[in-house]
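Standup, Tuesday
Yesterday: got the pipeline producing structure tokens again.
Today: sanity-check two examples.
Blockers: none.

Example 1:
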Amino acid sequence: MNTATESLPPRQHFHHCPRCAKSLPDGGEPNRIECGACGFLLYFNPTVAAVAFAFREDGRVLFIRRAKEPGKDLLAPPGGFIDLGETAEVAVEREFREEVNVRLTGVVFLCSQVNQYCYRGVQYPVLDLFFTARAADPGAAEALDDVSGFEWRDPLGVSVDELAFPSMKEALKVLQSRLRAGLTDGAS
């Protein structure tokens, strides 16, 4: 398999039981491993990510340019995977500090979207949790971890075609719809 161009769901990477090393039958449930020899059972659930559209006082939103694949050079609101023991709100605040050195206030849930994240030949199912927030210190923004640059943009002027992932495109549509309807002031 050429991992640069092909990606498999997690189950298809397992040919032997992780506990007893017995061969696993081909096929079966795509979201689990069940070993007939030792009874081992593992479900593949989606990993969870937290992402935020952070507004500054003039209504512009912070977008990053991704420095690496997948989605290299495309726009994305900052965010990332939630670590064990973190809430989504804590994770999105940590990701903002790690990626762009910005503190968030007023973090409010916007929507959730399903996604597929292809990394090193594995196709990870992801549930992306999107938030709105205020950038507490927008002047502190800088391109850090896996970020090649950043831009403060009018969220109504950003095309979904500029964004890195389908989940982000759908979340931007939700945000734009809420902004047009006056249902949010950009952080609530």
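Example 2:
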Amino acid sequence: MRRGVVSVAVCVCVGAGGVQLLAQANRFLALTPGFPLWAYGYKTPPAAPEDWSGRCPGTRPRDCDRPGGMPADTTGEKLTIPGSGRSFTVAEITAPYSPADWFPEDHPPMPPIVARGKPESGFRACAICHYPNGQGLMQNGPVAGLPVDQFLRQLADFASGRRKSADVNKANAFEMAAMARNLTPGEARAAAEYYASMPFKPWIRVIESATVPKFTATVNGLFLQAEGNETEPIGRRLVEMPEDTYQSNMLRNPRSGLLAYVPPGSLKAGETLVKTGGEGRTQACGACHGVDLRGTATAPPLAGRHPGYMARQMYDMQQGARNGDGAKLMRAAVEKLTEDDLIAITGYIASLQP
């Protein structure tokens, strides 16, 4: 079993053996050396991790959607956002096949696959996770400004199985693979061209601190600040959460960005690794991604993007869960990185101007 990859063998226990299964599941991630819990949206190992890798082998993405990932509409009240002339209920905001679009003036007309998805096959609208502007939250990929060819290559890797998650409990990664298998070439290109047309805007504010606000982890891998002003030690973590819990989690405001807390000294350490390779621990990122890390013809833009997302991708590459052509080129750059290196590198890159 590769380090960091949950073995599906523990999922076949039944009856009395189920007790043993639960015990194994409860402690698995805690015992996995180097698994970056924080990058995958865990504060502590999940109480009952599931194996989603085999639950959606076909092309019905909805079969892979983890229940309970969105806020419930308890009142039916119409809500508003400053600067928007629109109002929506929570049910409308989180509608899987027509999520609310607060600021249609911020983006070109959305193609149907982005705005509505395909209800007949359970294909949720791209905008429900990535937002109409492609900025997204910590548990999703930030897709705005990705070149069309890179976008299409990643969809092809998802569809073929060459791109997976090292965490088989991460349901939305396997939903994304089912989505990629469900897309027609025309739909894939329409989504790619739409998101490529919008530059990724400043979205992450990185803060070096020995403490972080107390926070909880949602079922879909989103960290949310707890009520009040209590803090806790940051430890060896990068903690990413919305600037404003209500605006992001309840209203899904596409103009309200993210905070990323990193341990003191992380940004300087990350700058050294990114610019010099750290005496052989990695390779200078600018050689492929451009001196400003805003991407090249062959490598995607990195500057200013979600640190948790970037850390997941590097860890997935370390573990062999990503095997596309780009991931193979990255393997030499990531194979020696420690969890502390992932924190430093991604925190520094996230702090840069997109």
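Quick observation on example 2: The first strand starts at residue 79 and ends at 80. The radius of gyration is 20 Å.
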